[in-house]
Structures are given as C-alpha cells and as structure tokens.
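Give me the fold.
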Amino acid sequence: EVQLVESGGGLVQPGGSLRLSCAASGFTLSNYAVSWVRQAPGKGLEWVSLINSAGIVTMDSDSVKGRFTISRDNAKNTVYLQMNILKPEDTAVYYCNKVNMRPAPWGQGTQVTVSS
C-alpha cells in the first residue's frame, strides 16, 4: 500500500524548534523530489520546502528561508523538515508528498502549533 506518514509535530513556544519526519511505504521515495506543504487554519495549502531526489538541491519559501531545513535519508525512505526559530504564523498542519504528476495519497499530516 502506498502511504505517507508525517510525524514530529507538537506544541512549541515561539523561538523553539521541531523536526518533522515524512516516512513513505509502498514506493521508493528516493526516486522523487519531495515537498513539504502546510495548511494554516482557514487557509489554503502553502508550499514550504522542496528537496530533489538525491538530496543535493533544496528550495525554501521566503516565509521559512533561513529557519527551516529540508533533508532526506534515502536509506530510510524518509524526508525531514528541521524547523527552527518557530513563529506563531508557522502554526499549521504539515504534509509531505512526492513532486510528481501522480502524487501519493495524502497522509494525515502533523499538527504544529506555535504559541506561548
């Protein structure tokens, strides 16, 4: 079964850090570029970061540049998102998916809440 499972979210104070994981099963994630996207309450999907299949090229949205770092461990079929200097506006459900004409079924996402 093709599946994506996001984990690592939680409640954190402004300025804190979290590390999200995106684990794939049923297909080889290392064959694809992967993006993280997020959806804040009452808003649409926002692209956050992208990493190419080899893990050499990354891109980040202006809203997270310098604070978030995307990486991957192809041996573990997993992509990560290290989030530092978190802000209340980073509060959202975070999702990952392969960058492809045929995305995998969306996972449940992982909730990140930044609040004091």
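The mean pLDDT is 96.
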